[in-house]
Amino acid sequence: MARRRLVWAFALVALVLLLIPAGATGQSTQVKQPTAVGTGGAAATVDVLATEAAIDVLRDRGNAVDAAVAAAAVLGVTEPFSCGIGGGGFMLIRTSDGTITTIDHREKAPVAMRPDSFWEGGVPLPFNAARYSGLSAGVPGTVAGWDTALRKYGTMTLAKVLQPAIAVAREGFVIDQTFFDQTQQNVDFFDDIPSTQALYLDPDGTPRDVGTVFTNPDLARAYERIAHLGAKGFYGGAIADAIVAAVQNPPVAPTANHVWRPGLMTMRDLQEYVAPERAPTHVGYRGLDVYGMGPPSSGGSTVGEALNILEGFDLDPAERTQGLHFFLEASRFSFADRNAYLADSDFFDVPLAGLLSDGFAAQRRALIDPLQAATSPVPPGDPSPFNNLGQPAVTVAQSETTTHLTVADRFGTVVSYTYTIESTGGNGIVVPGWGFLLNNELTDFNFDSLTHPNSVQGGKRPRSSMSPTIVLDDGHPLLALGSPGGSMIITTVLQLLVDRLDLGATLPDAIAAPRASQRNTLRVSAEPAFIASPEGVALGAQFGHLYTPAAEIGAATGIEFLGHGRVLAAAEPARRGGGSAMVEVPE
User: Which one of 402, 403, 420, 557 is the catalytic residue?
Assistant: First the structure.
């Protein structure tokens, strides 16, 4: 029956596409390709419709910030289990005049949250009990982030850049295998929530079929309200009322087979949310300048510390196995420090200058055996003696399935942007009447601890691993990249940089290469292709690295600036169904 239904679905979609004009169902006229080279602007995302939206904005004389928001809004429609207006993120911007800045729109804990809010009977809740609840939803920051970025660094209005996403939400797009699989992971919880079930499941309770057209008119209405009223259309009025109601009283069906705990978010939490602009992290690496995201993200500091450690080693492309050993060990020691010291710097005095200092890197580097893997967990170091050297890298100028997009324009503005609703499907609650999932970002706190720097606290932003990165060469953009993947975002970005800058890979080859992730654990999480590779085998047999197979690590995108106005945009060729790269003027 399922096969027959799938055949009929494909036939129906084919007939519909023949009878109506191209683009009328949100279908791109572009062929999906993971690499593009040309001149002018460039964009790379996981989805062809989102990449096309960015390129259309660039061709309409918008800048990279305008194009990034347009693409992100489309991804909120086509990648709803990874991102959307119910979540938050970090945008790293290099402006045309050379300024590097970030927009922090990470979600915040409601003011009423306490360190023990995820505890019952004297013990912390199991992860799924904490996640699928109103408790896990942080105050969403995405809309505020888009609004702040556009007002300060864009050239178009929020109303204009939301138009492509509104069209896709209304006209629909064809469900692919990735969308189906991500729905399937959540069926047992999605069918507890009528608003979620109605949007993502067929009447028989199964995911909507591959090949069928998916529309989301409620999300189109939400985008239209935001387009008309601006950010206040999200943080006040009907949408805000619906968010608070869904969090405080999860809309659970009488037949639900799970307990959905109420959360503590209030209208005041929404109305008082701000997306601060912060300075980026910065390290020098082999004559290049590498910029990333500071706290509450741990991405910029951990990637930066690992690069500082690696700079003391000679990474020879002819000795790739040795180079990968140093990559894994630098990750191991950097993650020990990340786990000990990174949190929201508005609540905890993060020793960021010390963590990113050359002196501290030298101490950590000295602990790495060139011929043998260390045994994790290794203890954190003490960055405090180095913390008064130089200026802190972050000042306030006023974390599982995620998505990353990279955009550049012809004027020199570059955007590396990672945003998320945390786990695949967030907290499982579609806000009734508005068509978007809420995040479960508060499970990114160390909610099993009452005293950890990253423990739960009202108004606090949970630590993240998102690592949007921009690399400059003599002040000029060289690379911009990032990835989803929870805490493996950090190691993915680091591996991309090592492969591209040290081990001789092109950017497309670095993105396609098998990945491994060492996060101060006994075993390295690694894709099967990495484990089976000659380097992977040697790392195990000769260096003592142990493996845990991971089906897929990350889904990166990036842009490389080739000089003389030429750009290369790159996305995944296979992971998460393959990504989409385009340039404004193809060669």
Answer: 402
